[in-house]
Amino acid sequence: MNNYTRLCCALVFASSAYADEKYFFNQWQQATQKHDLVTLQKLIEPNTVIEVLWIDAEPNLRFVMTAAQYLQQVKALWRFGSEESYHFDKVNWNRKSDVNLQLSFSQTEKRVLFDKASGQRSELLIDLVKTQDSWRANYIKATVSMW
Q1: Which residue spans within 55-147 are E strands per DSSP?
Q2: Which of 47, 85, 94, 145 has its CA 20 to 30 A from that of 3?
Q3: What mean pLDDT is predicted for residues 41-52?
């Protein structure tokens, strides 16, 4: 295999890997915005640990949830919230290996919850693992501020 062929193969692999990564993030956004719990559940490994740091508490409050508990919290917010809007920004990728990837981004949510306007901004750090042909979260750390 000559150098030109190697370069072409590397570029194809790199662009398809980036497409996979972007697909995960796009699926996360769409599932959140469309209240698609089935898709969100498919993006998260069942044994995923979700670590939450609530920075508005004095002192800061840290707690850990299972994937099932996290999905139940999301479902409750969707069930009781209205007039929702979501904004995603500050997206960064850090490839650890061919099968490990770290994604970080900010997610801002605004909604009316029990007749009161509220919102939260989460700085999310998600460790992803490649399973078969898709990326799935196997650790999530959320630093959360609420109003």
Answers
A1: 61-66, 81-95, 100-113, 116-131, 134-146
A2: 94
A3: 97
